[in-house]
Design a protein that fits this description.
Helix content: 40-55%
Structural class: alpha/beta
Shape: globular
Number of strands: 16
Largest sheet: 5 strands, parallel
Strand order of the largest sheet: 2-1-3-4-5
Strand content: 5-15%
Low-confidence stretches: 127-135, 392-399
Amino acid sequence: MILIIDDDSAIRSSLSFMLKRAKYEVQAVSGPKEAMKAIHSVTPQLILMDMNFSLSTDGAEGLVLLKQVKLFCPDVPVILMTAWGSIPLAVQGMRAGAFDFITKPWNNAALMQRIETALELTSREEVADTSTTEDEDFDRSHIIGKSKALEAVLATVKKVSRTSASVLVTGESGTGKELIAEAIHLNSLRRNKPFVKVNLGGISQTLFESEMFGHKKGAFTDAVTDRKGRFELADKGTIFLDEIGELDLSCQVKLLRVLQEQTFEPLGESRPRKVDVRVVCATNANLEQMVREHTFREDLLYRINLIAVHLPALRERREDIPLLARHFVENRCREDGLPLVKLSEDALEFLSRLPYPGNIRELKNLVERTLLVCGKDCLTAEDFQSQYHPASVATDAVANAKGLTLEELEKRTILQALDTHDNNLTQVALSLGISRAALYRRKNTEFRLMIDQKAL
């Protein structure tokens, strides 16, 4: 199949007609998003690609798309289509991995000759024995599951891991985004270098620069010694920026500069330091919507989103629930020195039917709580049912919300959740559908102290 990528419908129609007459299978799309969707479903033999997809004519979109295409289809020849005045841009594309370029308007015979040459050369360069690539070790980093949805995610992870491309992992809270980030690092060329995790949702605006870039002694009142920041600790390795959607706009500007220039300045020092890091970000927020609402910078989104990996919710991969449940049981028994506990068939059926708004995190908590509370050598559906407490706190709070302000309603809801879950902050956050960091990070200092006192 030959894939045509051009926003001009007349060009798509003309090229499709010419190639179909030459007995080629053709798919034509109008832009980068549609192109990546097509590439995810089937690997083309060759790609014909325009360099501009908007009013801008600088070709930046085309170069970004070319890099993305070469990550997923490194051996597929790409022929760029550009105007005469953009030949220097086409040269940049060649340097970035394009096979050839043509200028508009083109000669049909010359174009067909270049297409046939590209296909012929590619077929000759194919390696006869591909068993070595098929049998390459791929460290799944304790990622449990064999569903089609999960395997599709891991296939993408396998393709991009050995590059230095920035990756954005999206998905609901509790789906295992951190495990995917670890898998990307462990299967990369940086696997023997540091993997530094940063929960941006737990870093205040005032501490951001010190945490991320470090500080020199005396830079501020409490800076009694020099301190390395997270970026310096991650040098030559991977930095995982979790909950990036929680980052304040002023902090986004500071982060963008580091990602663009790969340099930073510790607080109290004016000399920039160079850093070499691979960036993997994660969020459960809709960053594109946040861009539209002007709460997330569009240029930062493009910088972190070269490759996007979306993790399916647990309800979208129910066939993995029995595997995960057994895995959590085995782990807990091993860690606590207990005899191995079995799960009955009706227990697995019960677990597979639950809605799991908290995803894998909720399943893990339910399995471990039932295992420890029941203390049996074989857990049944009845055992799990006795320990299953679906979140109803928010509903109860709304029923009694008459006359309350939004802030008062929030306080009441969280305090009720603290009572319901015996002051376990992890369970409270899970029942409310937010992260533990988001629960704790309240603007009202007095309310934050209330949460602390309840949790003691």
